[in-house]
Records
---
Amino acid sequence: MLAALEMPANFVPTTNAVLGEMQRRGISRDAILAELRRMGTEIPQASIELLQWAMAAGHDVRILSDCNSVFISQMLAGGGVSACVMEVITNGASFQRVAGVQVKPDPYLPASLPSQNMPCSQPPTVRTMSLTAAATGGTAGGR
């Protein structure tokens, strides 16, 4: 499926298709969250130390990503560094009863951008998330 994508690409539809297929095959919400947290344990030690140093030094750490709020929050939790990150600017995501995890592209981005799921061209106030809500599997969205 990914071999057919040309760069730059909008990965939101592909991500949603893969997540939908996972749900169809019976992979539970809890299994997805557990695997994302396990993946967080593989964050390189140097990255963890950098985040911990930045927090201890009083720096505000913000992550800007074209991934999504559920994936990022769970991996930060698995790496034990959620508290080090003040804000994540990314695509919102939440668990839906019927559709499993759904990633929502940022609606404020102009359609002319080559990668419509990139929140980077917007001010930070457009797309932020609550790490607490996302870490508990809740929904995350704009301010």
Note: Confidence is low (pLDDT under 50) at residues 112-143.
---
Amino acid sequence: MKKRLSLAHNLLRNRWENAKSEVRRSGSIYYPDRNSMEREVRDLVELETNNWKKKYVWFGEEQITPEEIEHKKELLQVFREVFDWETKYELRISYYTEPNSYTHEHKCKDADELRKYLNYELDFDIEEVDDEDIDYDRFDYSSRIEGEDHNRSFDVIITKFRLKEEVQKEEVPEVSER
């Protein structure tokens, strides 16, 4: 039995398929609207990873409301039903050192591991830091590590963003956006 796509699914699919291409100065072709969709998914996955809280809140800005959270959860679910992508999670930890500080990045195996680090359920052993993870251009070799800054942050990287194969084959009735 063939699954019919909902209006939301069709709108996303049409947005993808009707994206206008542009040519960069280098001559390569890209799709700004598709890139925008990928950033939208990244932002939603970041929220989900961070227990539906914004990564950064500017002075005077509120966290998202429960109604907004529900809307964003539904939107992410629709994206997951229409698109495929690969997700990578990176943890960023800063350390106090004498006389300066440094930051390193750690690639996590999945969102669950990242959440555990962000919630301090997992400790990060300073001794396990790979030399490749340290930016030695600004590192004072006479430094000694004093402790963690307690300001863990993260990045979500979305790659290979594409329509699901079964969605590509689905016949789409004309949908007008009003």
Note: The mean pLDDT is 80.
